[in-house]
Amino acid sequence: MRSVFGALAIVGLCGIVPAAATPGVDERYVSDPANGIALYGYDPVAYFTDGRAVPGQREHEAEWNGAAWRFASAANMAAFLSAPEVYAPRFGGYDPAAVANGAPAAGHPLIFAVRGEALYLFRSPGERDAFRDPRPAEKAWPRVEAQLAR
After folding, report:
1. How many CA atoms does the CB half-sphere of 59 hold within 13 Å?
2. 27 band by pLDDT with thresholds 50, 70 and 90
3. Domain that holds residue 131
4. 7: in domain
5. Residue 64 — φ and ψ, nearest 5°?
6. Residue 63, in any domain of the structure
7. How far apart, in whole angstroms, are the C-alpha atoms of residue 48 and residue 33?
8. pLDDT tens digit string along 73-87?
9. Is 51 part of a structural domain of the chain?
10. How many CB atoms lie within 10 A of CB 117?
11. What are 67's strand-pairing partners?
């Protein structure tokens, strides 16, 4: 029964990012199509420091690598800007399973895993739970990345 409630909670949380607002497959980073903010405005540093998705604030916004990123605090923004490769999601926030199969499919900012020093976003809890090895996605990423706009 507990797992049913957990699954319902995830489904409910996923509703926060509208399914109809799926980013196109031409974006370098998974972004909100309404405003272009990377990770739908979630703070990439908070995944590491808080272990959860935390909405960023408009007053803590920075540009990096062609995308606008939001942060929950000035400290998180400074941490990101000092080491963006550490905090930005692997594969631009695209689901590693899809990337491994040669296709960019947007990960959801509320369905994530931090493994070591890497943030991964997934399309579904099942994809996240099945994720074991990033190497197939790493191998395919250059081809998938070439499909995306810069």
Report:
1. 3
2. confident
3. 22-146
4. no
5. -150, 130
6. yes
7. 25
8. 999 999 999 999 999
9. yes
10. 11
11. 64
